[in-house]
Amino acid sequence: MDLKVVLDVWWVPQDTTNMVIIEAIQDLAHGRLDPDGAAHKIDEAIFSAERGVVRNDDGICSVAVPDDPEHLSYRRGFLLQLLPRVVAQIPADHPGQDRLVELLKSIPSLPERQIAVNWGDGTQTENLWAREKVNDYQKHLTFMESRVFGFMWKWKCPGGPYDTESDAPRPSLENYAAFCARLFVAGIYSLEGCAIGRAPFATINHSRALPDDYDEHACAAAQWIIFAGAELSEVCAWNAQPGPRWKDWDSWRVKFQAISEAENSSEHCRELADRTLRIMGRVEEDDVTTGGARGFGMSYQDGDTIVSTNPEARNYVGKKDQWDEYGQDGLSDNDE
């Protein structure tokens, strides 16, 4: 599948390091660079730019130190602000999205880089790419939970600026949602940015007049089922309160059913809703376990049996090998 991603980067200082990061991300998205190569290129560019010397009580310690105390954190923040702008232009089913996920999985495997940053009245050293494991959804990149990441990576489509004069695809909330769902499946990102939970898809009553952009939110929600359906079903089962076991899951099904039959929905949106309903049915039939709820307090016992720490949730037993048989989108060859 052909891909053209063009960014208007007037909003960043045109220094060498920033341009290397931009080039690495674009080359990776287009398949000109593999994820490990992109990770090393970005790592080396940032580390080399910030290399310096810091004095401590024992003398001189050779570590990387930014000239500006906030420079290094700015570089990391810039990387995270760049990714959403790129991925919003990449079609939801394009392998470029998978390559960008693999990049984020590759970064923690890089050699440890000690950098010095100002902290309060002094300076302390830390790893360039933090590795502290707070929970399963911070095991890859704890810096992704930073203020910058939390602000940018919601269910809203990341804002521009984009190159409006080019023929590159316009940024799409659907593309962006597919990427966030992939991150969740990879154990990199939690449900904070889920386009199917606290987003307009879930909060707007479909029986009433719908906003003009509702199709956009519905398509984004569908991507979460397509790429993370089994994981979401597991989370719904774990979060079950007294009453229906999969309350959220059932409400999503009702909404997708209504969308699939709505004359005022676009053809693309109706097709996605139909596909999503088939996936949800297959997930329910196979009772799939993926481990997606592990970061929400679940633990594993006796192989595939998951025992929830929530006393009101039922034990959830699944068969992951069945999920693998029909692929990530939940469809067998006969379903297409």
Describe this structure in words.
Residues 324-336 have a biased composition (Acidic residues). Helix content is 44%, strand content 8%. The chain has helices spanning 16-29, 35-49, 71-87, 95-106, 147-152, 173-185, 200-203, 214-238, 247-261, 267-286, 320-326; strands at 54-56, 59-61, 114-119, 122-127, 298-301, 305-308, 316-317. The strands form three sheets. The chain has a three-stranded antiparallel sheet. The protein has 336 residues and is mainly alpha-helical. The model is unreliable at 58-70, 132-155, 159-166, 240-245 and 293-336 (pLDDT under 50). Helix 1 packs parallel to helix 3 and helix 2 packs across helix 4 (95-106). The radius of gyration is 22 Å and the shape is elongated.
Structural class: mainly alpha
**How many strand elements?**
7
The percentage helix is 40-55%
Helix tally equals 11
Morphology call: elongated
Order of helices and strands: HHEEHHEEHHHHHHEEEH
Mean pLDDT across all amino acids = 67
Instruction: Please report the distance between the alpha carbons of the first and last residues.
Output: 19 Å
Biggest β-sheet description: 3 strands, antiparallel
Count of domains: 2
**Rg on CA atoms, Å:** 22 Å
Key features of this structure:
single chain, 336 residues, mainly alpha, 2 domains, three-stranded antiparallel beta sheet, two-stranded antiparallel sheet, 7 strands, elongated
Task: Please write out the topology.
Blueprint: H1 16-29, H2 35-49, E1 54-56, E2 59-61, H3 71-87, H4 95-106, E3 114-119, E4 122-127, H5 147-152, H6 173-185, H7 200-203, H8 214-238, H9 247-261, H10 267-286, E5 298-301, E6 305-308, E7 316-317, H11 320-326
Antiparallel strand pairs: 1-2, 3-4, 5-6, 6-7
